[in-house]
Amino acid sequence: MTTLPETTAPLTTDDDLSVWPASTTRLTGGDLAVGAVPLTEVAERFGTPAYVLDEGEVRDRCRTYRQVFPDGEVLYAAKAFLCRAMVHWVREEGLGLDVCSAGELELAVTTGFPPERIVLHGNAKSPRDLDTALRLGVGRIVIDSASEIARIAALVGPHGHQKVLVRVVPGIVAGGHEKIRTGTEDQKFGLSIADGSAQHAIVRILDQPQLELVGLHCHLGSQITSVKPYLAAVRRVVGLMSRLHKQHSITLPEIDLGGGHGIAYRPGEDALDITTLARRIRAELAGGCQAAGIPVPRLTIEPGRAIAGPAGVALYRVLVVKHTGSHTFVAVDGGMSDNPRPALYGVRYAPRLVGRRSLAGPETVTVVGRHCEAGDVVAADVPLPGDIRPGDLLAVPVAGAYHLSMASGYNLVGRPPVVAVADGRARLLVRRESLADLSGRDIGL
To answer: Residue 100 catalytic?
Structure first.
């Protein structure tokens, strides 16, 4: 167990480290501790690049969701980040799980997660995805296209039974980037309400006795920081539920509003207030259902990034500092293979020098990765001390979601390890990918 210097002081809410895990503390010599573990200690023990995950932050965020949605179902979106420890934490904190593949599903179930509390998503589910879901007894399958209806019904068999939801497209623009907006008509997910595709699919499902339609699903996109799009989605989905009740005499008991809850990646950025979200969604849902004369369905939400993202920190070692014209490039030992999000979505981070105290004034630099791509940028135009040099340790907060889950084998550098920190202890959750791992798959000779 790590013993911290007596000068350790907790951060205040208005500190420039406000986007870091709540357990973050300052140490002497310019170091930071997360979960009472110095980041320099993590780097020395496990190497860099490395992902650090604050177990306490993950658990606290799970508990907050359970508190503000006490009567609903909260499913952790596994695509944000998944490992066996995460499955264990989520289950202990009372959340369900939503998965997008047979791989995510099998990892969860073999770790002990109850399959009946898992929802399977996917716009193009493979035969393996569906076979695995039915074999393991997944709780619900979200139907994303009309062609899935017959496929699932055939796999279930005439004497089987499977609960399903239909993912509908409400025609609402929301999300932090055009590539992560999924509530509009011009993308690959779901069935449109406007053109009647959703209604047509629902009628077909009702003709399949082995499929039980239990509700409607609607996911607007990711990194949404305003409550208004969710309220608009409630109105449109409740409107569809009302029409189904009148036309087909069916009452759907569930409504799943997906996730996409936005978080702040840099101090001062907006984040979705989930307490306000919960209060206003419940009010909108109750009012809409009362006006439509239908019972209020049980609400389900699917946060992923909002639970894992702020709990993570990425650690890098500086390899090169290069001055080119008016630009300074700080190259680190990771990059787009362990975080492709800046290249994909233009995401901006706030890296920080840790491990030594610098008296040099800040200079604007661009932190870049080690990969053979001009677009391999970790953080563009950010302030770092003017004396930044090779060997320095940089820490990037809000790195818990869509880092390892989207990491690649580009340039065969190997994916970083995941290290959990809590109560002064650091332990390895996912080991570093080795050359033996990479070469073991290559059987060409």
So the answer is: no
